[in-house]
Amino acid sequence: MPLALLALAIGAFGIGTTEFVIMGLLPQVAGGFGVSVPTAGLLVTGYALGVVAGAPLMTVLGTRISRKRMLMLLMGLFILGNLVSAAAPVFAVLLIGRVIASLAHGAFFGIGSVVAADLVPPRKKAGAIAMMFTGLTVANVVGVPLGTLVGQTAGWRVTFLLVAALGVLGLLGVARLVPEVPRQRGVRLRHELAVFRNVQVLLAMAMTVLGFGGVFAAITYIAPMMTHVTGYAEGSVTWLLVLFGLGMVAGNLAGGRFADRRLMPMLYTVLTALAAVLALFTVTAHGKVAAAVTVFLIGALGFATVPPLQKRVLDQAHGAPTLASAVNIGAFNLGNAISAWLGGLAISAGYGYTSVNWVGAALAAGALVLAVVSSALERGSRRPGRIVARTSASEQVPVPADQH
Fold first, then answer.
1. Does residue 183 or residue 253 have the better pLDDT?
2. Helices in 124-188 by DSSP H: which ranges?
3. pTM over 0.85
4. 76: which of 29, 169, 350, 372 is 20 to 30 A away, CA to CA?
Protein backbone atom coordinates (compact mmCIF):
# COMPACT_ATOMS: atom_id res chain seq x y z
CA MET A 1 0.00 0.00 0.00
CA PRO A 2 1.46 3.39 -0.97
CA LEU A 3 2.03 5.54 2.13
CA ALA A 4 0.22 8.38 0.35
CA LEU A 5 -3.01 6.40 0.81
CA LEU A 6 -2.40 6.50 4.56
CA ALA A 7 -2.11 10.29 4.46
CA LEU A 8 -5.39 10.52 2.54
CA ALA A 9 -7.04 8.14 5.02
CA ILE A 10 -5.92 10.32 7.96
CA GLY A 11 -7.48 13.36 6.32
CA ALA A 12 -10.65 11.36 5.67
CA PHE A 13 -10.68 10.28 9.33
CA GLY A 14 -10.65 13.88 10.51
CA ILE A 15 -13.33 14.94 8.06
CA GLY A 16 -15.53 11.96 8.94
CA THR A 17 -15.18 12.70 12.64
CA THR A 18 -16.18 16.36 12.36
CA GLU A 19 -19.12 15.51 10.10
CA PHE A 20 -20.78 12.99 12.42
CA VAL A 21 -19.59 13.87 15.94
CA ILE A 22 -21.91 16.87 16.15
CA MET A 23 -24.90 14.50 16.23
CA GLY A 24 -23.84 13.26 19.65
CA LEU A 25 -23.09 16.76 20.96
CA LEU A 26 -26.27 18.58 19.98
CA PRO A 27 -27.68 18.67 23.56
CA GLN A 28 -24.43 20.16 24.91
CA VAL A 29 -24.23 22.73 22.12
CA ALA A 30 -27.91 23.66 22.49
CA GLY A 31 -27.51 24.09 26.22
CA GLY A 32 -24.33 26.11 25.86
CA PHE A 33 -25.91 28.66 23.54
CA GLY A 34 -29.43 28.56 24.94
CA VAL A 35 -31.05 27.33 21.72
CA SER A 36 -33.39 24.41 21.11
CA VAL A 37 -32.10 21.03 19.94
CA PRO A 38 -33.92 21.38 16.57
CA THR A 39 -32.15 24.74 16.10
CA ALA A 40 -28.84 23.11 16.98
CA GLY A 41 -29.71 20.52 14.32
CA LEU A 42 -29.01 23.24 11.74
CA LEU A 43 -25.34 22.42 12.37
CA VAL A 44 -25.97 19.05 10.68
CA THR A 45 -28.07 20.46 7.85
CA GLY A 46 -25.69 23.36 7.24
CA TYR A 47 -22.74 21.00 7.00
CA ALA A 48 -24.51 18.73 4.50
CA LEU A 49 -25.54 21.64 2.30
CA GLY A 50 -22.01 23.04 2.52
CA VAL A 51 -20.66 19.75 1.19
CA VAL A 52 -23.09 19.78 -1.73
CA ALA A 53 -22.18 23.37 -2.66
CA GLY A 54 -18.50 23.18 -1.80
CA ALA A 55 -17.70 20.03 -3.79
CA PRO A 56 -18.00 21.63 -7.25
CA LEU A 57 -17.04 25.14 -6.11
CA MET A 58 -13.74 24.22 -4.48
CA THR A 59 -12.85 21.79 -7.26
CA VAL A 60 -13.40 24.44 -9.92
CA LEU A 61 -11.28 26.91 -7.96
CA GLY A 62 -8.53 24.31 -7.79
CA THR A 63 -8.35 23.48 -11.50
CA ARG A 64 -5.32 25.73 -12.02
CA ILE A 65 -3.10 24.18 -9.35
CA SER A 66 -1.78 20.67 -8.73
CA ARG A 67 -3.95 18.15 -6.94
CA LYS A 68 -1.48 17.82 -4.07
CA ARG A 69 -1.45 21.56 -3.45
CA MET A 70 -5.23 21.65 -3.60
CA LEU A 71 -5.49 18.83 -1.07
CA MET A 72 -3.21 20.80 1.26
CA LEU A 73 -5.32 23.95 0.87
CA LEU A 74 -8.48 21.96 1.57
CA MET A 75 -7.01 20.55 4.78
CA GLY A 76 -6.07 24.10 5.77
CA LEU A 77 -9.66 25.19 5.20
CA PHE A 78 -10.86 22.23 7.27
CA ILE A 79 -8.54 23.20 10.14
CA LEU A 80 -9.73 26.81 9.99
CA GLY A 81 -13.38 25.80 10.12
CA ASN A 82 -12.88 23.65 13.21
CA LEU A 83 -10.86 26.35 14.97
CA VAL A 84 -13.65 28.87 14.28
CA SER A 85 -16.16 26.35 15.66
CA ALA A 86 -14.10 25.78 18.81
CA ALA A 87 -13.82 29.52 19.51
CA ALA A 88 -17.38 30.48 18.48
CA PRO A 89 -18.80 33.11 20.89
CA VAL A 90 -22.36 32.75 19.54
CA PHE A 91 -24.32 30.03 17.75
CA ALA A 92 -24.20 31.80 14.37
CA VAL A 93 -20.41 31.77 14.39
CA LEU A 94 -20.40 28.06 15.20
CA LEU A 95 -22.68 27.48 12.21
CA ILE A 96 -20.29 29.51 10.02
CA GLY A 97 -17.37 27.43 11.26
CA ARG A 98 -19.23 24.24 10.36
CA VAL A 99 -19.93 25.52 6.86
CA ILE A 100 -16.29 26.55 6.37
CA ALA A 101 -15.14 23.04 7.34
CA SER A 102 -17.78 21.44 5.10
CA LEU A 103 -16.55 23.31 2.02
CA ALA A 104 -13.41 21.17 2.11
CA HIS A 105 -15.25 17.86 2.47
CA GLY A 106 -16.50 17.08 -1.04
CA ALA A 107 -13.47 18.38 -2.91
CA PHE A 108 -11.06 16.51 -0.60
CA PHE A 109 -12.77 13.17 -1.17
CA GLY A 110 -13.30 13.91 -4.86
CA ILE A 111 -9.73 14.94 -5.62
CA GLY A 112 -8.41 12.37 -3.16
CA SER A 113 -10.26 9.61 -5.04
CA VAL A 114 -8.55 10.61 -8.28
CA VAL A 115 -5.15 10.78 -6.56
CA ALA A 116 -5.69 7.41 -4.86
CA ALA A 117 -6.69 5.76 -8.15
CA ASP A 118 -3.59 7.17 -9.87
CA LEU A 119 -1.27 5.71 -7.21
CA VAL A 120 -2.01 2.09 -8.13
CA PRO A 121 -2.38 -0.09 -11.25
CA PRO A 122 -5.77 0.01 -13.02
CA ARG A 123 -6.85 -3.34 -11.57
CA LYS A 124 -6.52 -1.97 -8.02
CA LYS A 125 -8.17 1.43 -8.40
CA ALA A 126 -11.38 0.65 -6.50
CA GLY A 127 -9.33 -0.89 -3.69
CA ALA A 128 -7.22 2.26 -3.42
CA ILE A 129 -10.35 4.43 -3.26
CA ALA A 130 -11.72 2.12 -0.57
CA MET A 131 -8.50 2.46 1.41
CA MET A 132 -8.88 6.23 1.49
CA PHE A 133 -12.56 5.95 2.49
CA THR A 134 -11.53 3.62 5.29
CA GLY A 135 -10.55 6.77 7.18
CA LEU A 136 -14.17 7.94 6.96
CA THR A 137 -15.58 4.61 8.08
CA VAL A 138 -13.10 4.18 10.96
CA ALA A 139 -14.07 7.68 12.11
CA ASN A 140 -17.53 6.33 12.86
CA VAL A 141 -16.08 3.50 14.94
CA VAL A 142 -13.37 5.41 16.81
CA GLY A 143 -13.44 9.16 16.16
CA VAL A 144 -17.14 9.84 16.68
CA PRO A 145 -17.57 7.87 19.96
CA LEU A 146 -14.34 9.30 21.40
CA GLY A 147 -15.20 12.80 20.23
CA THR A 148 -18.64 12.49 21.79
CA LEU A 149 -17.14 11.23 25.06
CA VAL A 150 -14.62 14.09 25.14
CA GLY A 151 -17.34 16.62 24.37
CA GLN A 152 -19.58 15.30 27.12
CA THR A 153 -16.81 15.31 29.75
CA ALA A 154 -14.44 18.14 28.79
CA GLY A 155 -16.75 20.28 26.66
CA TRP A 156 -17.65 20.27 22.96
CA ARG A 157 -15.08 23.00 22.20
CA VAL A 158 -12.29 20.57 23.14
CA THR A 159 -13.69 18.10 20.61
CA PHE A 160 -13.39 20.65 17.81
CA LEU A 161 -9.85 21.48 18.87
CA LEU A 162 -8.89 17.82 18.73
CA VAL A 163 -10.48 17.47 15.28
CA ALA A 164 -8.47 20.50 14.13
CA ALA A 165 -5.35 18.71 15.39
CA LEU A 166 -6.30 15.72 13.26
CA GLY A 167 -6.51 18.11 10.32
CA VAL A 168 -2.97 19.30 11.01
CA LEU A 169 -1.79 15.68 11.01
CA GLY A 170 -3.57 15.06 7.71
CA LEU A 171 -2.07 18.21 6.20
CA LEU A 172 1.46 17.16 7.18
CA GLY A 173 0.83 13.68 5.80
CA VAL A 174 -0.34 15.00 2.44
CA ALA A 175 2.58 17.43 2.27
CA ARG A 176 5.14 14.72 2.97
CA LEU A 177 3.71 11.57 1.39
CA VAL A 178 1.50 12.48 -1.57
CA PRO A 179 3.59 12.77 -4.74
CA GLU A 180 3.65 16.08 -6.61
CA VAL A 181 2.05 15.52 -10.01
CA PRO A 182 2.10 18.47 -12.44
CA ARG A 183 -1.25 19.95 -13.31
CA GLN A 184 -2.67 18.24 -16.39
CA ARG A 185 -2.14 20.29 -19.48
CA GLY A 186 -5.01 20.51 -21.90
CA VAL A 187 -7.62 19.62 -19.27
CA ARG A 188 -9.51 22.79 -18.50
CA LEU A 189 -12.76 23.62 -16.79
CA ARG A 190 -14.76 23.16 -20.00
CA HIS A 191 -13.38 19.62 -20.27
CA GLU A 192 -14.39 18.89 -16.68
CA LEU A 193 -17.88 20.29 -17.32
CA ALA A 194 -18.23 18.38 -20.60
CA VAL A 195 -18.41 15.03 -18.83
CA PHE A 196 -21.79 16.01 -17.37
CA ARG A 197 -23.20 15.58 -20.87
CA ASN A 198 -22.46 11.89 -20.50
CA VAL A 199 -25.63 10.08 -19.48
CA GLN A 200 -23.61 7.37 -17.75
CA VAL A 201 -22.00 9.91 -15.43
CA LEU A 202 -25.40 11.32 -14.51
CA LEU A 203 -26.83 7.84 -13.96
CA ALA A 204 -23.93 6.93 -11.68
CA MET A 205 -24.52 10.05 -9.61
CA ALA A 206 -28.24 9.34 -9.42
CA MET A 207 -27.40 5.84 -8.18
CA THR A 208 -25.27 7.46 -5.50
CA VAL A 209 -28.09 9.73 -4.34
CA LEU A 210 -30.67 6.93 -4.17
CA GLY A 211 -28.45 4.08 -2.99
CA PHE A 212 -26.74 5.93 -0.17
CA GLY A 213 -29.93 7.80 0.60
CA GLY A 214 -31.54 4.45 1.35
CA VAL A 215 -29.03 3.91 4.15
CA PHE A 216 -29.54 7.27 5.85
CA ALA A 217 -33.32 7.16 5.60
CA ALA A 218 -33.09 4.55 8.34
CA ILE A 219 -29.93 5.59 10.20
CA THR A 220 -30.96 9.24 10.62
CA TYR A 221 -33.82 8.09 12.87
CA ILE A 222 -32.04 5.14 14.45
CA ALA A 223 -32.11 6.66 17.97
CA PRO A 224 -35.90 7.09 18.32
CA MET A 225 -36.50 3.80 16.46
CA MET A 226 -34.25 1.80 18.78
CA THR A 227 -35.54 3.41 21.98
CA HIS A 228 -39.27 3.62 21.18
CA VAL A 229 -39.69 0.48 19.04
CA THR A 230 -36.88 -1.93 19.94
CA GLY A 231 -36.70 -1.02 23.63
CA TYR A 232 -33.01 -0.15 23.92
CA ALA A 233 -31.90 2.34 26.55
CA GLU A 234 -30.70 5.70 25.27
CA GLY A 235 -27.13 4.90 26.27
CA SER A 236 -27.14 1.84 24.02
CA VAL A 237 -27.66 3.90 20.88
CA THR A 238 -23.98 4.93 20.88
CA TRP A 239 -22.89 1.30 20.75
CA LEU A 240 -25.40 0.55 18.01
CA LEU A 241 -23.81 3.36 16.00
CA VAL A 242 -20.39 1.81 16.67
CA LEU A 243 -21.79 -1.44 15.30
CA PHE A 244 -23.04 0.47 12.26
CA GLY A 245 -19.55 1.92 11.87
CA LEU A 246 -17.96 -1.54 12.02
CA GLY A 247 -20.30 -2.58 9.24
CA MET A 248 -19.21 0.46 7.25
CA VAL A 249 -15.55 -0.53 7.56
CA ALA A 250 -16.19 -4.13 6.49
CA GLY A 251 -18.48 -3.17 3.62
CA ASN A 252 -16.18 -0.45 2.33
CA LEU A 253 -13.17 -2.80 2.12
CA ALA A 254 -15.22 -5.62 0.58
CA GLY A 255 -16.78 -3.23 -1.92
CA GLY A 256 -13.39 -2.01 -3.04
CA ARG A 257 -12.04 -5.53 -3.41
CA PHE A 258 -14.88 -6.98 -5.45
CA ALA A 259 -15.59 -3.86 -7.50
CA ASP A 260 -12.14 -4.17 -9.05
CA ARG A 261 -13.21 -7.55 -10.39
CA ARG A 262 -16.79 -7.09 -11.62
CA LEU A 263 -18.14 -3.65 -10.80
CA MET A 264 -21.71 -3.73 -12.10
CA PRO A 265 -22.54 -7.26 -10.88
CA MET A 266 -21.23 -6.12 -7.51
CA LEU A 267 -23.64 -3.16 -7.54
CA TYR A 268 -26.59 -5.39 -8.54
CA THR A 269 -25.92 -7.75 -5.66
CA VAL A 270 -25.33 -5.11 -3.00
CA LEU A 271 -28.25 -2.87 -3.94
CA THR A 272 -30.63 -5.85 -4.06
CA ALA A 273 -29.45 -7.02 -0.64
CA LEU A 274 -29.62 -3.47 0.78
CA ALA A 275 -33.22 -2.99 -0.37
CA ALA A 276 -34.18 -6.36 1.13
CA VAL A 277 -32.46 -5.73 4.48
CA LEU A 278 -34.02 -2.27 4.81
CA ALA A 279 -37.46 -3.71 4.14
CA LEU A 280 -36.86 -6.46 6.71
CA PHE A 281 -35.80 -3.83 9.25
CA THR A 282 -39.48 -2.99 9.72
CA VAL A 283 -39.76 -6.46 11.29
CA THR A 284 -36.34 -6.94 12.90
CA ALA A 285 -36.58 -3.55 14.64
CA HIS A 286 -38.92 -5.21 17.16
CA GLY A 287 -36.18 -7.51 18.53
CA LYS A 288 -32.94 -6.33 20.14
CA VAL A 289 -30.59 -8.95 18.70
CA ALA A 290 -32.18 -8.92 15.26
CA ALA A 291 -32.11 -5.11 15.20
CA ALA A 292 -28.42 -5.02 16.11
CA VAL A 293 -27.56 -7.49 13.34
CA THR A 294 -29.61 -5.47 10.87
CA VAL A 295 -27.88 -2.21 11.81
CA PHE A 296 -24.51 -3.86 11.10
CA LEU A 297 -25.74 -5.19 7.75
CA ILE A 298 -27.10 -1.80 6.69
CA GLY A 299 -23.71 -0.24 7.41
CA ALA A 300 -21.89 -3.00 5.53
CA LEU A 301 -24.16 -3.07 2.49
CA GLY A 302 -24.49 0.71 2.34
CA PHE A 303 -20.75 1.35 2.30
CA ALA A 304 -20.08 -1.57 -0.02
CA THR A 305 -21.62 0.69 -2.68
CA VAL A 306 -19.21 3.58 -2.10
CA PRO A 307 -16.04 2.34 -3.90
CA PRO A 308 -17.91 0.93 -6.94
CA LEU A 309 -20.08 4.04 -7.32
CA GLN A 310 -17.08 6.35 -7.01
CA LYS A 311 -15.06 4.22 -9.46
CA ARG A 312 -18.02 4.11 -11.85
CA VAL A 313 -17.99 7.91 -12.00
CA LEU A 314 -14.20 7.97 -12.51
CA ASP A 315 -14.45 5.38 -15.29
CA GLN A 316 -17.24 7.17 -17.14
CA ALA A 317 -15.64 10.62 -16.71
CA HIS A 318 -12.20 9.44 -17.83
CA GLY A 319 -9.84 12.15 -18.97
CA ALA A 320 -11.46 14.82 -16.80
CA PRO A 321 -12.58 13.03 -13.64
CA THR A 322 -11.79 15.54 -10.89
CA LEU A 323 -14.94 17.66 -10.90
CA ALA A 324 -17.20 14.65 -11.51
CA SER A 325 -15.58 12.80 -8.62
CA ALA A 326 -16.08 15.74 -6.26
CA VAL A 327 -19.68 16.29 -7.34
CA ASN A 328 -20.37 12.61 -6.67
CA ILE A 329 -19.23 13.12 -3.06
CA GLY A 330 -21.78 15.91 -2.88
CA ALA A 331 -24.32 13.42 -4.25
CA PHE A 332 -23.75 11.18 -1.21
CA ASN A 333 -24.62 14.10 1.06
CA LEU A 334 -27.55 15.11 -1.13
CA GLY A 335 -28.85 11.57 -0.69
CA ASN A 336 -28.47 11.95 3.08
CA ALA A 337 -30.46 15.20 3.11
CA ILE A 338 -33.25 13.96 0.80
CA SER A 339 -33.67 10.64 2.60
CA ALA A 340 -33.77 12.29 6.02
CA TRP A 341 -36.47 14.67 4.75
CA LEU A 342 -38.53 11.85 3.22
CA GLY A 343 -38.18 9.78 6.38
CA GLY A 344 -39.34 12.74 8.43
CA LEU A 345 -42.40 13.09 6.20
CA ALA A 346 -43.29 9.43 6.76
CA ILE A 347 -42.99 9.79 10.53
CA SER A 348 -44.95 13.06 10.56
CA ALA A 349 -47.70 11.39 8.53
CA GLY A 350 -48.22 8.98 11.42
CA TYR A 351 -46.74 5.82 9.90
CA GLY A 352 -44.35 5.29 12.81
CA TYR A 353 -40.59 5.20 13.18
CA THR A 354 -40.14 1.96 11.24
CA SER A 355 -41.77 3.53 8.17
CA VAL A 356 -38.42 5.13 7.35
CA ASN A 357 -37.13 1.66 6.52
CA TRP A 358 -39.67 1.34 3.72
CA VAL A 359 -38.51 4.72 2.43
CA GLY A 360 -34.92 3.47 2.46
CA ALA A 361 -35.85 0.21 0.73
CA ALA A 362 -37.66 2.13 -2.03
CA LEU A 363 -34.66 4.40 -2.58
CA ALA A 364 -32.24 1.45 -2.75
CA ALA A 365 -34.56 -0.31 -5.19
CA GLY A 366 -34.60 2.84 -7.32
CA ALA A 367 -30.80 2.79 -7.42
CA LEU A 368 -30.91 -0.84 -8.55
CA VAL A 369 -33.26 0.06 -11.41
CA LEU A 370 -30.87 2.82 -12.50
CA ALA A 371 -27.95 0.37 -12.40
CA VAL A 372 -29.83 -2.00 -14.72
CA VAL A 373 -30.70 0.89 -17.08
CA SER A 374 -27.07 2.06 -17.08
CA SER A 375 -25.79 -1.38 -18.04
CA ALA A 376 -28.43 -1.76 -20.75
CA LEU A 377 -27.46 1.57 -22.30
CA GLU A 378 -23.79 0.63 -22.11
CA ARG A 379 -24.38 -2.68 -23.87
CA GLY A 380 -26.45 -0.92 -26.51
CA SER A 381 -23.66 1.56 -27.24
CA ARG A 382 -21.28 -1.33 -27.95
CA ARG A 383 -23.45 -2.97 -30.60
CA PRO A 384 -21.92 -3.12 -34.10
CA GLY A 385 -22.97 -0.22 -36.27
CA ARG A 386 -23.78 2.08 -33.35
CA ILE A 387 -21.54 4.88 -32.15
CA VAL A 388 -22.33 6.80 -29.03
CA ALA A 389 -20.03 9.75 -28.39
CA ARG A 390 -19.22 10.85 -24.87
CA THR A 391 -18.70 14.43 -25.95
CA SER A 392 -18.82 16.30 -29.22
CA ALA A 393 -15.85 15.85 -31.50
CA SER A 394 -14.85 19.47 -31.01
CA GLU A 395 -14.77 18.99 -27.25
CA GLN A 396 -13.08 15.60 -27.02
CA VAL A 397 -11.60 15.21 -23.55
CA PRO A 398 -7.88 14.45 -23.63
CA VAL A 399 -6.74 11.39 -21.71
CA PRO A 400 -3.41 11.85 -19.92
CA ALA A 401 -0.85 9.15 -20.56
CA ASP A 402 -0.55 8.32 -16.88
CA GLN A 403 -4.22 7.47 -16.45
CA HIS A 404 -4.56 4.47 -18.76
1. 253
2. 125-138, 144-154, 156-177
3. no
4. 29
